[in-house]
Design goal:
This protein is of the alpha+beta class. The chain contains 12 helices and 16 strands. The chain has helices spanning 2-16, 33-48, 93-110, 135-140, 146-149, 160-166, 195-199, 237-255, 291-312, 331-343, 358-362, 389-408, and strands at 52-55, 61-65, 70-80, 115-122, 182-190, 203-209, 211-220, 224-225, 260-262, 266-269, 275-276, 279-288, 315-324, 327-328, 348-353, 368-373. Strand 3 (70-80), helix 3 (93-110) and strand 4 (115-122) form a beta-alpha-beta unit. Helix 3 packs across helix 12 (389-408), helix 8 (237-255) runs antiparallel to helix 9 and helix 10 crosses helix 12 (389-408). It is elongated. 46% of the residues are buried. The structure holds zinc ion (ZN). Zinc ion (ZN) binds at residues 80, 91-92, 125, 189. Pfam families: M20_dimer, Peptidase_M20. This is Allantoate deiminase. Keywords: Hydrolase.
Length: 410
């Protein structure tokens, strides 16, 4: 156990050199030179450990251990190599390192697998350089389209296509069918929440990834003089927005887990001390693991807002600009993960993911499930991101046992 802990940490530190920020943390943006260096380093490590390596057209990196009996059935594990700006050392890359360690150790102990084992280092997941997320897994599954990124550029104005070409990659052939050989995908990732820490558990077996709906709410009242307009004559956009926000959040609290609702952005116009505000804008982020519940709750809050707008005499505009369904994980893979945790006395719980992951893209095409390890204080996307060596090792162990069952058992 001790050496899995120290080795995981050593490899996490090693990979963190590529894009390490002077004050701690990692910045490894898609197709940057830090990104290229990390993929090259992983490629070399895989080769040294006896994996056959290759990139796909867009720059996902794979390391393969060919199966002896079913070479055309691939059991895949891995995560994304890119990070947010000044992110932590675990988000994404821990899942790649853990998959590498697990497959390498299985090969050392049991030799060639019956089914092919493949580790993937996805090119991109975070959307932190370009306004596009899941570029890696969306290409592997054939979802990403060339036209999605033709017009986009990074914060320095570098077009996506130019950055990709400079890194040595190109668009995939969209007429080609996605790979038929992948029979299972297991992603190990940090929780980025504090549920496991609160419950004192090492591992989360993720049964579903939440669906999300995001809205921008615009309220138009009437801007007026703050001194000469009596309260009864006002169409105060902030008063209406404040009432709506209070009602929505109270309703969300009463609704209970796993529903979460956030008003994260608030703007007022003209945003001046002595003017009754004529306009207010706020955002809503609503998530739930059950599609029907998500629809029901959004319906309820829409009615609340419409009622409040009518009684406040303001105009209301509700714009839903994101509507993603919850993604359930595969029951057969979940059974494997649960059974292996139970058999090896790894303390775990079944839970949902409140954040998005490559697994939600993979799950639509391939039997998929996820494992989580705890994040201290739930902190992520931040240099303070931390998972204890014991938990990191428990995650690697759980993944190793699961991959053994999937790739070595008849
Ligand atoms: Zn991640």
């Amino acid at each position: 156990m001790e050496n899995i802990q120290t080795e995981t940490i050593r490899l996490v530190e090693w990979l963190s050199q590529f894009g390490n920020d002077p004050d701690g943390g990692v910045s490894r943006l898609l197709y940057s030179k830090e990104w290229t260096a990390a993929q090259k380093a992983l490629e070399q490590y895989m080769q040294e450990e006896g994996f056959t390596t290759y990139y796909d057209e867009i720059g996902n990196l794979y390391g393969r251990l060919e199966g002896s009996q079913h070479p055309d059935e691939t059991i895949m594990s891995g995560s994304h190599v890119d990070t947010v700006r000044n992110g932590g050392k675990y988000d994404g890359q821990y899942g790649i390192i853990a998959a590498l360690m697990a497959m390498r150790d299985l090969k050392r102990q049991y030799g060639q697998p019956l089914r092919t084992l493949e580790v993937v280092s996805f090119a991109e997941e975070e959307g932190s350089r370009f306004p596009y997320t899941f570029w890696g897994s969306k290409n592997l599954t054939g979802v990403a389209k060339k036209e999605d990124v033709l017009e986009i550029a990074d914060f320095n104005g570098v077009p996506f296509t130019e950055a990709m070409a400079q890194a040595g990659f190109r668009f995939r052939d969209e007429s080609a069918e996605p790979r038929p050989d992948i029979k299972a995908f297991v992603e190990l990732h940090i929780e980025q929440g504090s549920v496991l820490e609160h419950e004192g558990l090492s591992v989360g077996v993720v049964h579903s990834i939440v669906g999300q709906r995001r809205f921008t709410i615009e309220i138009a009242g009437e801007a007026n003089h703050a001194g000469t307009t009596p309260m009864g004559y006002r169409k105060d956009a902030v008063h209406a927005a404040g009432r709506m926000i209070q009602q929505i959040l109270d309703r969300a609290q009463a609704y209970g887990d796993p529903l979460v609702t956030t008003v994260g952005k608030l703007e007022v116009k003209p945003n001046v001390v002595n003017v009754v505000p004529g306009k207010a804008l706020f955002t809503l982020d609503i998530r739930h693991t059950d599609k029907e519940e998500l629809i029901r709750f959004t319906g309820e809050v829409t009615e609340l807002m419409q009622h409040t707008a009518r009684t406040s005499g303001v105009e209301l505009k509700i714009d839903m600009w994101m509507d993603e369904d919850p993604v359930p994980m595969n029951n057969r893979i979940l059974d494997v993960l649960e059974r292996q945790c139970r058999e090896h006395n790894i303390p775990f719980k079944l839970m949902h993911s409140g954040a998005g992951h490559d697994s939600q893209i993979m799950a639509k095409f391939v039997p998929t499930a996820m494992l989580f390890v705890p994040s201290r204080k739930g902190i992520s996307h931040n240099p303070e991101e931390y998972t204890s060596p014991e938990h990191l090792a428990d995650g690697v162990q759980a993944l190793t046992h699961a991959l053994y069952e999937l790739a070595y058992q008849a």
